[in-house]
Amino acid sequence: MSDATVTDQTISSAAPMSAATIRPEEAAHFGELAKDWWDPKGSSAMLHKLNPVRLRFVREAVDVHWGGDVRSVKPLAGKNALDVGCGAGLLCEPLARLGAEVTGVDAAPENAQAAAAHAEGSGLDIRYIAGEIGGQNIGQFDLVTCMEVIEHVADKTAFLGELKARMKPDGLMILSTPNRTAASRILLVEGAEALGMIPRGTHHWDDFVTPEELRELLDSIGLTMDEPTGIAFGPMQGLHLSGDVSLNYIVTARHRG
Fold first, then answer.
1. Alpha-carbon distance 133 to 163, whole Å?
2. What is the pLDDT of residues 164-214, one digit of tens each?
């Protein structure tokens, strides 16, 4: 691994925010999970199962948005990508392998440190920033991703506005989040957390966002949301992309016009 790769994987402190969006207790909760985030059998095991499903959607969305070659192994070559709420880098690293110049931002310093250490060990040149996205002077990006984050945000409109500000005029945003339904309450909160599949305290059902609410939030800041794709669970298929959005869903958004 080159010295340049190690040097570029830096942790910078949070810049002052114009408006607080992340609850401190939420950042602390996920920071406590940093030590075994990359353990596929650890506290983030569910994310390891979810990540390939999200990546399939991301790859297809990227190909459609930029009209790329579906056979290319680096469809994001020449583009930069920002993952907000990146955790320990589960999505950042695949985005880098798809050819993007990647920046990851997480409110928990422990996560950013764990992400940088893992990327360095994997020989990947990824920039990680510890702190809120608001006030970060990091420019604009072709691709902005934010997976399973908005349900943990206090001011959702302000947060989405910060994401929009980081997206180039012809850029693409991809968001995923649990839906606020009876199914998500039973399976994600009362079921998965009770059974230890997800750490207790991870989800607060009242903060979940429906597709209709997310569409309205994005519309209010000048972004157009495409039709949501569900992330469903089945005994035979496991987690998979689906027309059923009752549990979890993933969407793309673009600048209006």
1. 8
2. 999 999 999 999 999 999 988 888 776 656 655 566 656 678 899 999 999
Write the DSSP assignment of 173-235 as a string of letters: EEEEEE--SHHHIIIIIIIIITTTSS-TTS--GGG---HHHHHHHHHHTTEEE---EEEEEET
Would the pTM of this model clear 0.70, i.e. be above it?
yes
Residue given tokens 């990327």 in the structure block: 119
- Contact assessment for residue 130 and residue 12, using Cβ atoms and an 8 Å cutoff: yes
Q: In terms of residue numbers, what domain contains 82?
A: 3-255
> Cα separation of 191 and 136, whole Å?
37
Cβ neighbors of 154 (< 8 A, separation 6 or more) are 20, 21, 22, 23
* Res. 231: pLDDT tops 90: yes
Q: How far, in Å, CA of 213 to CA of 210, rounded? A: 5
Q: In angstroms, what CA-CA distances link 232 with 9, 99, 192, 252? A: 35, 29, 14, 18
Q: Which CATH number is 198's domain given?
A: 3.40.50.150
Cβ 13 vs Cβ 132: under 8 Å: no
Q: Total domain count for the chain?
A: 1
Rg (CA), the chain: 17
pLDDT at 131: 92
